[in-house]
Amino acid sequence: MSEFWLISAPGDKENLQALERMNNVTSKSNLSHNTKFTIPDFKVGTLDSLVGLSDELGKLDTFAESLIKRMAQSVVEVMEDSKGKVHENLLANGVDLTSFVTHFEWDMAKYPAKQPLVNVVDTLAKQLAQIETDLKSRTAAYSVLKANLENLEKKCTGNLFTRTLSDIVSKEDFVLDSEYLITLLVIVPKSSYAQWQKTYESLSDMVVPRSTKLITEDNEGGLFTVTLFRKVIEDFKVKAKENKFTVREFYYDEKEIKREREEMNRLQSDKKQQYGPLLRWLKVNFSEAFIAWIHIKALRVFVESVLRYGLPVNFQAVLLQPHKKSATKRLREVLNSVFRHLDEVAAASILDASVEIPGLQLSNQDYFPYVYFHIDLSLLD
């Protein structure tokens, strides 16, 4: 499973023995894989400051999770033609996310533990805020470019009534620069090809004989040319409509056609040029944001453990990876039973609730006798 439970219990002899019992039960029952989660000794400061940090870290945790979700989605959108390889690009420090979490080590160089806690939290908050700002600007520019290109491409894939004709017609299909003559394009249903050939010359006066030619066709019909005198255009359109032939409003403009083609080529070139740098930026900064998120989880465990268990700082954090979703209810019961002594009333109420709520869909706001946080990597699937 791509889900982890990060818990802590006091580090005294009784609770270390409780942790050992938990490890034995969960191992024998194949409920979870458990590993120690090492958190540095931070400068605690005052309990009042810890209460403030507790609230701030909760908000920062939510923000970081939302940010990495958005970054993962951006990777999916950018890698539109290679979606099967998305997870190869969602790494943290060059390793898959599960490996990073299970082998987590606090980055002392980036977030010095000797600094006051408020400074460490501020560093993380500023880092994530900058990543979000850059994400918005970079993905917005790419999205506009992609949308413009898709709009042009759609014009090339519609039916004969709506699609652009600049990639279909050529200069040779038209009578150009004539004061009297003009070439029109007419959409004819496939079932009416024979009727068109028999009648187009007589639909109006002044239609040039044998001037029709099939340019292209789709599943419904074909695009034909016809040349006639300019002064009978409106009469020809009316008669064509009566016979279920549709005159397509199109006048050959070599400069406009050239401009359309150049615009398409420019957008395709710009998209290719932006693709590589944007994907590299997303990979690097997804890694940075994810690493910051797990550091925030570690900080929350530290702060909540000090607030819950008191001073001096003495607790043990453990990372549990449930083996399967169906075992989470039993795993929760084991934890509540082992650590029931930490808060008899809370443990009893949670055990009672576990009977009422199948699957125990728990959030970080649920209260347990021990400190508990949830890390869900399935949000990136």
Measured between the Cα atoms of the first and last residue, the distance is 12 Å
Order of H and E elements: EHEHHHEHEEHEHEHHE
Count the helices. How many? 9
- The total of beta strands comes to 8
Uncertain spans: 353-365
- What is the oligomer described by this structure? single chain
Biggest β-sheet description: 4 strands, antiparallel
**Helical proportion, percent range:** 40-55%
Structural class: alpha+beta
Output the radius of gyration: 34 Å
The best one-word shape is: elongated
Order of the strands making up the biggest sheet: 2-7-1-8
What is the arithmetic mean of pLDDT?
89
Beta content: 5-15%
Summarize this structure briefly.
This protein is α+β, with helices and mostly antiparallel strands.
Task: Give a written overview of the molecule.
Helices cover 50% and strands 14% of the residues. The model is unreliable at 353-365 (pLDDT under 50). A four-stranded antiparallel beta sheet has the order 2-7-1-8, with helices on both faces. A four-stranded antiparallel beta sheet has the order 4-5-3-6. It is elongated. Helix 2 (47-78) runs parallel beside helix 4. The chain has helices at 13-28, 47-78, 97-102, 117-155, 193-199, 233-242, 254-309, 328-338, 344-356; strands spanning 3-10, 32-36, 181-189, 213-217, 221-229, 246-248, 315-322, 371-376. By secondary structure, it is an alpha+beta fold. The chain has nine helices and eight strands.
